[in-house]
Amino acid sequence: MFDSIYTYIAILFAVADAVLVVWATSHAVLKKRETRTVIGWVGLIWFSPFIGSILYFLMGVNRIERRGEEILDNLKESACDAARQAIRGRQFDGIPFDYDNKLANVGRSLTGFELLPGNQVTFLNGGQVAYPAMLKAIASAENTVALSSYIFDYDNAGKEFIDALLDAQNRGVEVRILIDHIGSKYSKPSAVKMMRKRGLNVQTFLPTNIPVLATYANLRNHRKILVVDGKMGFTGGMNIREDCLNEEAVPHPIQDVHFQFDGPVVEHLQDAFLADWKFAAKEELPADTWFGTPCSEGSTWARGIPDGPDADIDNIRLLMLGAISSAKRRVDIVTPYFLPESALVGALNVAAMRGVHVRILIPEKVNIRLVQWASMEPVSRVLERGCEVYQSPSPFDHTKVMLVDDEWSLVGSSNWDPRSLRLNFEFNVECYGTELNQELSKLIETKLETAVPLTLEKLEARRPYEKIRDGITRLATPYL
Fold this sequence. Notes:
Elements: H1 2-31, H2 35-47, H3 51-60, H4 63-75, H5 81-89, H6 103-111, E1 116-125, H7 127-139, E2 144-149, H8 156-170, E3 174-180, H9 191-197, E4 202-205, E5 225-228, E6 232-236, E7 254-255, E8 257-262, H10 266-281, H11 287-290, E9 300-307, H12 315-326, E10 330-334, H13 342-353, E11 357-363, H14 369-374, H15 376-383, E12 388-392, E13 396-397, E14 401-404, E15 408-412, H16 418-423, E16 426-432, H17 434-450, E17 452-454, H18 456-460, H19 464-474
Parallel strand pairs: 2-3, 3-4, 7-13, 10-11, 11-12
Antiparallel strand pairs: 1-8, 1-9, 2-5, 5-6, 6-8, 9-16, 10-14, 12-17, 14-15, 15-16
């Protein structure tokens, strides 16, 4: 009798394992893009009964991308789709630069947006410059203010913005504020809580009770967007916190840059905000109220590049690859976190071997220690092929800029790491024009004056335990 029971139990387990193996194998083959990844998971699934399938279910299924697709489905329901299609559908004469039929086609293919002419781009270096410009714009608002930020601290800088937003609302201006839920927790009390107490219309993006260090701490809205009256826009890498003021009294000063846009590309900024607001607040914001008529007095052609773990996945990464492959003379990169995937490393190396002058500027001390340790591997790989890497001294440099030759500039919120390029919602702007490129070139040259070259010899001189530590940390790169 007992033998029969054990036999039935064994058969039941065997059938259950077979079902799990078939499911997990089929999912891996259909969903995983990299052949090595598929082989690794399938091997574990087949040769580790139950355990391999369970591990694949827990760690191998990309729930982040799937959740991003759900978000996109909700965004597609927005009544502003007609306005967005109008933005995408306009045609303009060819841009007067070298990349008219080359790099410009990449951004068009990725986003559906045309390059828009007539933009004035104002470079704002540091919170001491950017915050007053943003506050002045809010004070001038007549109809609408749309503000999105990853981090919004309740400190001296945050309080000044709250006061300005409240003043605008009291004047009859429609104000909408969107803060990422994780980013709202960086200060106590929460700025979101204090804004709600004062009657401001503020929402958090993708609320979660899961701890900050958990997997779902990704899939965050990392965008920084301010649009006033649908005519004037700001974006870049700067959060709203007093650390960006880079003053002596601030415990952890941060260097950063931001950009003011006056011109048609402001519509792309507003488009991104309205879509995010629709998802987070379940509120339709009418296009005829929130889209203005921006002036067209500048010389820069520009296009917004939304990116996120949905239909926009890989937009910025593919644009970077296109820009690197189009480079003729130089590629300059400034980023706080340098953890590029193999394709980007290969593109930088090939560019250097073609004779393109490739320079990468990263902080000497990164504010996330694990990222600094893990970045030593990709740094060594680009150094081996002739790229130059420099480390900027403190304070921590949060600047995000990429320049190609003398005409193309990429600015915005994304870093050179998997979190920005695959797991979070980002917004960049690609700009064609010599004026902005020259300004940012001067900024980079100034930073390089105090930066220290990082060489293969220095990396090799690390102590053995440091090399082992950095190598082990590198294994966590997809999650950093």
